[in-house]
Amino acid sequence: MRSDAFQTAKIYRHLLKAIKKHIGKEENKSHFLEFVTSEFRNNQNLSDGVAVQQKIKLARDYTFLLNSVHHQKDLLFSYNIAVDRSDEVKRTLGKSASSVGLRLPEVYQA
Fold first, then answer.
1. What single Pfam family name could you report for this chain, choosing any that match (predicted)?
2. Please, where are the H alpha helices in 1-110?
3. With bands split at pLDDT 50, 70 and 90, how would you rate the model's confidence at 32?
4. Which residue in 45, 66, 96, 104 could disulfide with 108, CB within 3.0 to 4.6 Å?
5. What percentage of residues in the chain have a pLDDT greater than 90?
């Protein structure tokens, strides 16, 4: 039982980290984070072992999906396959500016 709780907490942390990293923490995107948090809290007293494993698998799969979509997008940008290059240019400029300790002007901020 203790290992199940540890596994669930670990998956929950990974899912929250993926949501914050790939979806964002802005006010208009907070409903994703709130939904995941409420689902984990609502199901914390679930006693059916099969249902618990299904919920854990769903959370793990969704974390994997978020990370994979983000990784694929990065690969497409690196292979110059992206349709809209403005995001790549902004990111490259941002990395260049931050490497020398500067920030981009407001024009380039997303």
1. Complex1_LYR_2
2. 2-18, 30-42, 49-78, 86-99
3. confident
4. 104
5. 19
